[in-house]
Design goal:
The chain is mainly beta and 124 residues long. Helices cover 0% and strands 46% of the residues. Strands 2, 4, 5, 6, 9, 10 and 11 form a 7-stranded mixed beta sheet that branches. Strands 1-3-8-7 form a 4-stranded antiparallel beta sheet, with no helix packed on it. The protein starts with a strand and ends with a strand.
């Protein structure tokens, strides 16, 4: 079982930036960020193949504004969010998976086994 602890959320004005971090307690094959706004379904934001190529993937809505990165030594996933707008307001969740198990793609919720508690991002 892998535990994930997110940090870095907060409130910011439109056009501002925030940086989220997610520390993992064990091996991760792929890590991702997802978000859920009130009364909406959880949606993908970004993902990185942490156990292999290191390739990153982004949802169209955040391409060019958000950057995901992974520190192998600290086993920490980071999401740098720039040019934030009110539509980015949501609870942001970190997720990960081992190398085994069903795979539906890096930006699919059902690819992931372990989830963090979430960190709130509010853009006004």
């Amino acid at each position: 079982h892998v535990q994930l602890v997110e940090s870095g959320g907060g409130s910011v004005q439109a056009g501002g930036s925030l940086r989220l971090s997610c520390a993992a307690s064990g091996y991760t094959h792929c890590m991702g960020w997802f978000r859920q706004a009130p009364e909406k379904e959880r949606e993908p934001v970004a993902a990185i193949a942490t156990g292999g190529t290191g390739r990153s993937h982004y949802a169209d809505s955040v391409k060019g504004r958000f950057t995901a990165s992974h520190d192998n030594g600290k086993n920490t996933l980071t999401l740098q969010m720039n040019s934030l707008n009110p539509e980015d307001t949501a609870m942001y969740y970190c997720a990960t998976r081992p190398s085994s198990g069903s795979w539906f793609g890096p930006l699919q919720l059902k690819s992931y086994n372990y989830w963090g508690q979430g960190t709130q991002v509010t853009v006004s």
